[in-house]
Amino acid sequence: MKITIVGGGYVGLVTGACFADAGNEVTIVESDTKKAGMINEKTAPIYEPGLEPILGKTIGKNLRAELSYDSVRTSDLTFICVGTPANDDGSANLSFLESASRSIGTALQKPTGYHVVVVKSTVPPGTTGDLVRPAVLTAAHKKENDIGFAMNPEFLREGRAIEDFQNPDRIVIGSSSSMAGDRVADAYRRFQSPVVRTSLAAAEMIKYTSNAFLATKISFANEIGNICKELGIDVYEVMKGVGLDQRIGSKFLDAGAGFGGSCFPKDVSSLTILAERAGIDPQILRAVLAVNEQQPHRLVALLENRAGQISGKRIAVLGLAFKDNTDDVRDSRAIPVIRELLEKGARVAAFDPMAGPNMQKIFPSIEYAGSAADALLGADACLVMTEWPEFSRINHEFDGMKKRIIIEGRHILTCDGKEGICW
Length: 423
Ligand code: UGA
Fold this sequence. Notes:
Largest sheet: 8 strands, mixed
Low-confidence stretches: none
Helix content: 40-55%
Oligomer: single chain
Structural class: alpha/beta
CATH superfamily of the largest domain: NAD(P)-binding Rossmann-like Domain
Number of helices: 15
Bound molecules: uridine-5'-diphosphate-glucuronic acid
CATH class of the largest domain: Alpha Beta
Distance between the termini: 51 Å
């Protein structure tokens, strides 16, 4: 099939690369010249395990990045993978989606065969039908029969996105007509997975609901973890016993410093606002966000409890990325922690295997150490903020600290004398 992907961010690039790897002819429309150039040179502009080998195999063969929308006209399908960042009030900003829709419509003005426009970006229910569809059709001067519309949410975890794309739990396809949905299903025929066919708005809601439920599991585990901590119980022992109940499931019950990233905080906020606008009081969603906001402060409170006044003290922060296997720091739980430490006059020495340069844009004047050992040298206390597997091997490096006050916000250390936020 001929496929155009609009947006070469992590979702668009992974989707484009995996569709190309499955034998399709794929063009990624990316307006950032530098990013498009890197992709065409087989270099991934983001860190994503497994992505560059696929770019190496497909660029120059059946995958390319372009600045223009020209490929849309000759494609069977166009996937919209642009960002939908949060507005100041927490609602989703749909301006990139709207302008991409208009550009796709303009490209479809010329005579074309039947074309399907697929929204992959996470959008509030109703967006594909009420915003994308009219924007494309008006710009294209065409009627619904010539262009089909579909909504196909992504369930890709950063750091494991290729694996998730190639081995999906399910493929959700919402569509305006069965013909449009069939074409999207055809693009996925190489991937073994149940396919769920729905209306456009139900597909949009499935994405929000999935992320909100996963975020709820985490906040629930954190609340139970906070109770366990007070009672002197290890929440990881508890959740092992709880998660084996198949009705509950053991995944996403890892208590800790809370969820970060570009998806959960934004999507739960956006769903909360949607609910309020619909006249519903979203009590659970609000509690999910509240518990998440509170966890970083609990970590600093625990630190003060152990280390006393932290003003003037050197605090090592290990882990800056919002989770392991990525250099992404968006909404990382390390951000509120570092902010509070600085407000309280601490000197922060930070280390992350990958995310230092990105965090430097947010906190330019803290110390960025080249290794965990350097950050720990002379530190009065240490906080662990990211579940990097390599942190499980840190041991003698802690001997360089003034005092072994080691508090982890992720259940990752194996050394002696550590204390967990909820364990
Ligand atoms: C999440 C979803 O898992 C994907 O299915 C979805 O497609 C994606 O958002 C999206 O909407 O684009 P992602 O944000 O990449 O993926 O990362 P996750 O692995 O879900 O982790 C999110 C946060 O939750 C991290 O900060 C992680 O440390 C935290 N977490 C995760 C916990 O605190 N406990 C857990 O048990 C699991």
